[in-house]
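Action item from last week, closing it out:
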Amino acid sequence: MVHHGALFVVMSLGLVVAAGGEVPESTSLDPWFRLVGRLHPLLVHFPIGLVLAAAAIEAWRWTSRERGVSEFTSVAMLLAALSAIGAVATGWINAWQEGEEASRTLNLHSWLGTAMAAVLLAAAWKTRRRDEPPAASEARLVPARVLTMVSAFGVGLAGHFGGELVHGDGYVEKALFAALGIDRSDGGAAAGATAGLASESPSSASAAVVVRAANAGTVDFRTQVLPIFESRCFECHGNGKRKGGLAMDSPASMTKVDDDGVAVKAGEPDGSLIVQRIMLPASDPDSMPPEGERLTDGERDLIRTWIKEGGVMEAVAAGVAAAPGAVKGATPSLDADLARRAAEVAQALRARGVIAQPLSQDDPRLDVNASLATPPFGDADLALLQPAAAAIVNLNLARSQVTDAGVAGLKGFAVLESLRLDSTGVGDAALACVPAMPRLKVLNMHSTKVTDAGLAGLKQAMALERVYAWNSQVTPAGAAALASARPTLRVNVGQE
């Protein structure tokens, strides 16, 4: 009996170790390897559930002074160990096939998962039920339960790192600290998904990202390309997530050349992986985005034109993030009371999970990004903004749960220059606040319920320069009517 068990452990450990080794290259087998690798999410949850259930049962039995390991634990740990081998093997294959870039999180997830498979094998051996003298059974009980508890903690931790790979760094911690009301920011300089674009940390001024301003009439990255990336790409390639090793909110990642090529090859759309992938048919496993509706022809053309014109991602010299809408030239001054309220509002928003920061080190006005808040930002949360209404320059409510009534109440935001309502449920009534915003230049309402009627009401918003309304209920005719009434206003409905 013992030699059979020893053979089982040795063979299983061999499979686990082999899973982390080299996989022979074979072009004809690549599709099959990819299929096997993508079974990892299916397999990985099975052992986690079994181990956590077994640990809970044994913890209860331990505190209740129950003798012996439960029959459920014995079976669950054996099944968990066997399924963990498959989860580890498919995980390594998936990382290899999907081109995951080496990172601390990936290494922790991969090697901790591999180690826990070995621990699970040991735990399965210790928790097995068999006929033996009571003394031997009692001697095995404590190690068996300790290994079960260690396994539960280990697979939970490995699963946590796996969740960060999918959802981004700090996925659980951010929600936890927000729920506890703990401010984990660095004094208001937390980088947002929009404001932090291209803010790589250079070692010196000479290493700073070069900034080139787009010429008049060309595609503007911040207001035209970035909204596409945020709504269709950042779920896997932004905000701390690097699926396939690509972070689309990092210029360094976007221009890094690897075995597959480069995501953005300045001046050469057809040589850029982004363009190649968005042009693939939906049936191709490499097509992007992999889920949801395909990009429209207008969106594809915007990305192609942007890359043809240089593929410049807005950044600033010396690595200091430039928030959208930041006013160049003299730094505006705020009275002491408003500056104090702005700082207090920023702190309260960060506690709510919102990215709120000054426009720059010298400009205390605020850039507020509520698009990533968990749970989603809603009408009740808008009250947090009111004390600093006169200091908020950029407001991003994309993908939030604000309604027409809530947004319509933002009439006191007199210095607002950029407002994002895209991918929300708002309609025409929400736009009632826009004419009361004398400095609003950019309004993004793509993927909303806004119609031509609501668009027509923007004629009185004299500062508006650009409106984005693709995938809404705005028609080309409605856009043309507004453009005719306001020749200096550009309305994008996805046909540019």
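Closing note: Residues 134-167 form the longest helix (34 residues).
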